[in-house]
Amino acid sequence: MSSGKLVTQREMSRQNGIVQPLLTDLYQITMAYAYWKSGKVNDVAVFDLFFRTNPFQGEFTIFAGLEECLKFLENFHYSDSDIEYLKQTLPSDIEQEFFDYLKDLTCNDVKLSAIEEGSVVFPRVPLLRIEGPLIITQLLETTLLTLVNFASLMATNAARYRMVAGKNISLLEFGLRRAQGPDGGLSASKYSYIGGFDGTSNVLAGKMFNIPVKGTHAHSFVTSFSTLDDLQHVTVTHPETKAQYNLFQLSLDWRKKLSTIIGVSPEEASDGELAALISYAQAFPSGFLALVDTYDVKRYNFQALPTRHNAGYNSNCGSNVTIQIPTIRSTRGYSTVERTLRSGLLNFCSVALALNDCGHRALGVRIDSGDLAYLSILARDTFRQVAESCQLPWFNDLTIVASNDINEETILSLHEQGHAIDCFGIGTHLGEIASPFYLYNTYYYNIYNEKQMDVAKVTIPGHKEGYRLFGADGHALVDLLQRSNERPPAVGRKVLCRHPFQEAKRAYVIPSKVEHLYKVYWSEGRICTAPKPLSEVRERVQASLRTLRQDIKRNLNPTPYKVAVSDDLYNFIHDLWLQNAPIGELS
């Protein structure tokens, strides 16, 4: 699916096994029986799936989940076991003919129109429009909502992380172990990638959705090694010369030499940690990215060591080369290597330089605790000192990955502190979304809603079309809903845009560009517009976000985006409102 080719019918049929007609609320089936009993089998309905409020206290949402909705329509069928279960569950006096009707029910007469997946969307603008026989369109409600809701929530959350992190920092999804079940974990991996993340730790998601899979090792790997005697195999092969090198001895030699550069005695470093890092480097010599904060030593203040020279080893030039030891810079009252990382950084740098002798370059480190801004700066300073002292410029550019309960506010704060992090691993706050962060999706029959006295819940009835109107600067100005029989807005032609419920709020817009929001994706029992590959949906998210002004996307007090209705639709809504509003009587 990531190849960019059109999705085949076979690929589309690879549906999540639990997404089936019985993944619904009981009242959908009881309503279906009541419709059937009332002779409404041939009644036609139009439903809108929309939401009322943007999540995360923001002013935009990313629409996702469309592909899964199409799979559901394509595979909709009540199996024999489904029918048997319903017979046991529903009241015994339900007629057999109704079950026969369900057994033959398909989505062949349903038409689904939708906004393109990956688009930025806004409250009250329908994401899906479902047309067809009343009973089948009613039965689709709960499943379509659950397929769109969590997907859009995850994609939106991921897009927000991408915006606060910036385009130059990598984002990895680490949320599987704390996700809301296996299906929630897979969805989180898929839709966080759509929203802008660069990879996932979820191996199954990588296989299923062709998402780059990333990961290193856990603290448990480090603690499984107690001493250097735990090492069994210590050789690494040079990728070009094929010569065998003793990684163990090279690492010990480098640890002794590096201790004078970064001001850490080998006796302060954990031998078990060194053994673990050597073992991991031997297994992955060209992919060595190590966790360096397993052992936490209490903080102490140290005097900065003076600049001096020392006979040492330079892997580029031989063994008897003078190494310049720069002055160790003090930060926040501590030495360059803060106590939390004293063991981890010394051991990592030792193994990384040993790998360099063997013809391999390490990738970097991961920090999983503590003051991430401070520790990342310390790690970068250490890498810079090693790079200068050993004349290895690439060492300065080693990747620093940070994890540990990171959220949007954490990233914003780290930016303010001038961190040196290249990549964030984010799990809990991405995939385990808790109240009040929800997406209130709604599925409404396109007739007037009797909750008319509660403006927050008033629906916009009728068969509608949606258009996005753009200004001369290329930014989206307003989403315009109008009745389907109206003339579409056109570039350069003035159009009156009205607030759906507030009479005085209106404005003329002369668009420089008009984008029709809806395409027909399902009709006559088949997919008529193929969903795009995940990689293209991912690109669509970023392209769509670029059409919004920055004040709409900002983290704090964003500006609401305008959703308007045409003058004709406004009058239609308010005529219905007046017709249905009760008239009081005074005496």
TrEMBL record:
A molecular function (GO) term: nicotinate phosphoribosyltransferase activity
Record domain Nicotinate phosphoribosyltransferase N-terminal: where: 22-149
One GO term describing the cellular component: cytosol
Keyword Phosphoprotein part of the UniProt annotation: yes
PTM summary: Transiently phosphorylated on a His residue during the reaction cycle. Phosphorylation strongly increases the affinity for substrates and increases the rate of nicotinate D-ribonucleotide production. Dephosphorylation regenerates the low-affinity form of the enzyme, leading to product release.
This protein's UniProt keywords: Glycosyltransferase, Ligase, Phosphoprotein, Pyridine nucleotide biosynthesis, Transferase
Function description: Catalyzes the first step in the biosynthesis of NAD from nicotinic acid, the ATP-dependent synthesis of beta-nicotinate D-ribonucleotide from nicotinate and 5-phospho-D-ribose 1-phosphate. Helps prevent cellular oxidative stress via its role in NAD biosynthesis.
Protein name per its UniProtKB record: Nicotinate phosphoribosyltransferase
Species the sequence originates in: Danaus plexippus plexippus
Lineage, highest ranks first: Eukaryota, Metazoa, Ecdysozoa, Arthropoda, Hexapoda
